[in-house]
Amino acid sequence: MRKFNTVKTFSNNPALDERRFLFEVVGISNQGSNNLDYPIRQSGRSFIAVPYSRMNQEMNRINRLGGKIINITPIGINTPIQGQGLSSSSNQTTNTKPMTQAQEKKEVKVPVNIYRPKNPFVGKCIENYELVAEGGSGTVRHLTFDLSGGDLHYLEGQSIGIIPPGEDERGKPHKLRLYSIASTRHGDKLDDKTVSLCVRKLEYENEKGEAIEGVCSSFLCGLEEGADVSITGPVGKEMLLPDEEDATIVMLATGTGIAPFRAFLWRMFKEQEQNPDYQFKGLAWLVFGIPYTENILYKEELEKMAKEYPDHFRLTYAISREQKTADGGKMYVQSRVSEYADELFELIQKPKTHVYMCGLKGMEPPITETFTAEAEKRGINWDDMRKQMKKEDRWHVEVY
Ligand SMILES: Cc1cc2nc3c(=O)[nH]c(=O)nc-3n(C[C@H](O)[C@H](O)[C@H](O)COP(=O)(O)OP(=O)(O)OC[C@H]3O[C@@H](n4cnc5c(N)ncnc54)[C@H](O)[C@@H]3O)c2cc1C
Question: So what's the pLDDT on residue 74?
Answer without folding.
Answer: 74
